[in-house]
Amino acid sequence: MIGLCYILLFWFAGNVLSYCMNGYISGNIIGMVLLFTALRMKWVKAESVRPAARFLLGTMALFFVPFGVGLMVSYEAIAANLWAIVVAAVVSTVIVLVVVGRSFQWFNNHKDRKEVEA
User: Fold this and answer.
1) pLDDT digit string, tens, across residues 76-112
2) Maximum distance among all Cα pairs of the chain, rounded to whole angstroms
3) Residues 15 and 31: beta-carbon distance below 8 Å
């Protein structure tokens, strides 16, 4: 139970900070970063959060039901713009793959150069 309280506390803190920044960054993301930081700094014990996190992950599929219903309600709009949606999804996926791959290669080469110099 305490783990769920921690998760909700950091979620709430993230949303408050997001509101203070005029929603520039999602409160959910800020809350996850805060929880991650608290776990890494050992302010929160992972053992206390683990049961609640496993429960939430186990029931995650249930959280997608409202979005699926929303897609079915918007079927006509999706069908009318299907090609634009598919092209945007493929292009954005390729761009992300290329950027992540190039970034990894650059960081990996940069790390190798530092090891050779040392």
Assistant:
1) 998 999 999 999 999 999 999 999 999 999 988 877 6
2) 61
3) yes
pTM over 0.85: no
Q: What is the pLDDT of residues 8-29, one digit of tens each?
A: 999 999 999 999 998 788 999 9
Distance CA 25, CA 19 (A): 9
3-state DSSP of the chain: CHHHHHHHHHHHHHHHHHHHCCCCCCHHHHHHHHHHHHHHCCCCCHHHHHHHHHHHHHCHHHHCHHHHHHHHHCHHHHHHCHHHHHHHHHHHHHHHHHHHHHHHHHHHHHHHHHHHHC
- Say if residue 75 is exposed, middle or buried (CB neighbours under 10 Å; 0-12, 13-18, 19+): exposed
Query: What are the tokens at 100?
Result: 């992540």
- Identity (one letter) of the amino acid at 21? M
